[in-house]
Amino acid sequence: MTRRTRADIRQFILEAIPDHPGNIASLVARRFGVSRQSANNHLRALTSKNLIRAVGKTRARAYALHDFINDKFSYDLSTENKEDVIWRNDIFPIMRDVPANILEICQYGFTEIFNNAVDHSSSHKCYVWIKRNAIRIEIRIIDNGIGIFAKIQNYFSLSDPRHALLELSKGKITSDPENHTGEGIFFTSRMFEEFTIYSGSLFFMKRKSGDNWLIDVKDKSGHFPGTWIGMEITIGSQNNIKDTFAQFEDDDRRFSRTHVHLLLAKYEGEQLISRSQARRLVNRVDRFDEAILDFGGVEVIGRAFADEIFRVYQSEHPRQLITPMYANADISAIIESVKADYRNQSKSLQ
């Protein structure tokens, strides 16, 4: 067996174990045409390197990735803690061996979120949890302050935490405009492959799946005081800071394009049918040259909802580009019909 084949087999094992913990040896044997004994030898080698761990014995044995880094830190926010110093002294030493693009993403995400805790949370403590295995890095930053959704809801007099999440997702929102741009969470949530916020009773997860994002928003039965933010990325990811910024910047490097997930405007038991829902959705998007409206996961919209965005709002902001994305056939037909009304309206006014 060549060194390349050996490396390929072991990389396959590391990537496949989460989904095949109990039959990984037979899976490797079939995939690479090797004996079961040879597959088990690779499993033992990865176990000896502390990259995976075995659970159970003989026929009941299963394997899992081993978190060879599982470090927790606690910081007193009543003292002067600088996010760049904490990154340099505590976090970077346990990440220095990861690829440069992943290291840059982790530094950006950590410093942005930790700084938010320092400046906005009104918390006395901040807790950081770093986990690494052979495939993934996970960063958790937790504070016991006012809570991110409550802070935004109260400062901007919004209706509820769900409304606060919708506004937060658009970007360019901050309770301290003199010192912050309100861009950190917008870009961090797109650099990482999985981004999670749990605050108060609201749980939000954004997960990359192919070209699309999977969104999960739900009310938890428990109440989490403060803010819990999780960021995860695979070590082999091709994501990088430059490309993430470029998706939403213009030629002058301005943050000129926002991406709004319509699922965030949809409450449980409701469909997106009313004009008031549409007005809430497009609130503040006039701060951008283009607004990408992501219909992924939305099955139905009302004509009044579409008319408020693609005719009424568009006529008030004729130079702004409103781009629908991932709309199904029925939704696309409604949007095109409303856009035709807008074009006819524009012609009649000329």
Folded structure, characterized:
The chain is an alpha+beta fold and 350 residues long. It has 3 domains: 3-65, Arc Repressor Mutant, subunit A, CATH 1.10.10; 69-246, Heat Shock Protein 90, CATH 3.30.565; 257-348, Transcription Regulator spoIIAA. The chain is built from 12 helices and 10 strands. It has helices at 3-16, 24-32, 36-48, 83-91, 100-120, 148-156, 161-170, 184-191, 241-246, 275-282, 303-316, 329-348, and strands at residues 52-55, 62-65, 69-76, 125-132, 136-143, 194-209, 212-234, 257-261, 290-294, 321-325. The strands form 3 sheets. It has a 5-stranded antiparallel beta sheet with strand order 3-4-5-7-6. The chain has a 3-stranded parallel beta sheet with strand order 8-9-10. The protein has a two-stranded antiparallel ribbon with strand order 1-2. α2 (24-32) crosses α3 and α5 runs antiparallel to α8 (184-191). The mean pLDDT is 92.
Profile the largest sheet: 5 strands, antiparallel
Mean pLDDT: 92
The number of helical runs is 12
CATH class of the largest domain: Alpha Beta
Helix content: 40-55%
Key features of this structure:
single chain; 350 residues; alpha+beta; Arc Repressor Mutant, subunit A; Transcription Regulator spoIIAA; five-stranded antiparallel sheet; three-stranded parallel sheet; 12 helices; 25% strand
